[in-house]
Write the structure tokens for this entry.
Amino acid sequence: LKTVYVPPACLHRFNTIANANRLANKETCGLLLGKDNKELVQSPARRRDVYVVTTLLIPEQRATSDTCAMEEEESVLQFTEERGLLDTHRYPSDADLCFMSSVDLHTHSGFQR
């Protein structure tokens, strides 16, 4: 497991953007993108891998109360590759749960490196 640093402003921004969909009872898809980093933990000999979120990307999408599907996935892939960003997956919600549905797994698999 990796430590993931998510700036609080990033989650606040997602919730602000997603609020309109939430009021309309629709899901919102957002990608937390960032970079792997080595963190020094008390000494250089004890480095650990961390993932630092640097970018929130809200792709073109269509949504219902139970689903959210990205459109133009090629442009998302191009965006991430041009900037050397990696993808992590998280659902910010009222309960702050993390999960991946079978559709999520299929969608996410294209972004694995």
Observations:
- The chain has three helices and six strands.
